[in-house]
Design goal:
- The chain is α+β, with helices and mostly antiparallel strands and 240 residues long.
- It has two domains: 124 residues, 2-Layer Sandwich (Alpha-Beta Plaits); 104 residues, no CATH class.
- β4 and β5 form a beta hairpin.
- α1 packs across α3, α4 crosses α5 and α7 runs antiparallel to α8.
Length: 240
């Protein structure tokens, strides 16, 4: 008994090669298309990164059996033209959809993409997806946005640190100026001692100039009251 004809064997090997290399396969029925129409379709698909081939369904089934892609066998009914997609399945789906609008004889049966079988409506929806380049640009933009924000944060850290240090220095200087003012206000040893103690408490608490001034005034009042008491006591002693 004679074996398979050489041309059939070659055709099966060619289909296998396409199935193994392609990212997707979109199956169509082309019955009623003229030779010139098919040539126009092939050129358009080639420009989108696909190759349009026509084989006998029996030969394609042999190839799917040997490549583990038998899921697409259910679409191998009637005259079948297959667009083998190398990269952008959305772009190829758009070409087929647009061509079918002006050539109703072309009918999309379905597609086989990344090991999954899609029916005709689902395959038509592939044409509505953004192109591969657009998707890559969107992904790159989404990834770049956080990186830009992170870079801006890193750039701002030294600047914010410098502002923080400058603020601390200014606060220290303000506290030192308040201390000098409190010392000058003292009129006697007792008042000076009280003012210094009050000033130290205000500095430790981070008091403002206004708070420090209030403490000094309070110390002066206390000193005046003490002087009044001393004077009264002295008067009583003289009278006695």
């Amino acid at each position: 008994m004679a074996g398979p004809r050489a041309d059939k064997v070659a055709a099966v090997e060619e289909v296998k090669d396409h199935l193994e290399r392609a990212d997707a396969a979109i199956l169509t029925e082309y019955r009623g298309l003229k030779v010139g129409d098919l040539a126009t379709l092939r050129r358009a698909l080639r420009g989108a990164g696909a190759e349009f081939k026509i084989y006998k369904n029996t030969l394609v089934r042999r190839a799917t059996a040997e490549t583990g892609t038998t899921a697409m066998d259910s679409l191998l009914v009637g005259p079948t033209g297959i667009a083998f997609v190398d990269a952008d399945v959305a772009a190829v789906a758009k070409v087929l959809r647009d061509f079918a609008r002006t050539h109703p004889a072309l009918v999309v049966k379905g597609s086989y993409v990344s090991g999954a079988l899609f029916d005709a409506p689902s395959t038509s929806r592939l044409a509505d997806l953004p192109s591969r380049d657009t998707l890559l640009a969107q992904i790159a933009g989404a990834m770049a946005a956080p990186m830009r924000q992170f870079a801006a944060l890193l750039k701002a850290l030294p600047q914010n640190l410098a502002y923080g240090i400058s603020a601390v220095i200014d606060q220290k200087r303000a506290a030192g100026d308040t201390s000098g003012s409190a010392d000058d206000t003292s009129g006697s040893a007792d008042v000076s001692s009280t003012a210094d103690a009050s000033e130290a408490e205000a500095a430790d608490a981070g008091a403002t100039d206004e708070t420090a001034s209030t403490v000094v005034d309070s110390a002066a009042v206390a000193a005046a009251e003490a002087a009044s008491i001393d004077e009264a006591a002295s008067t009583d002693a003289d009278e006695s």
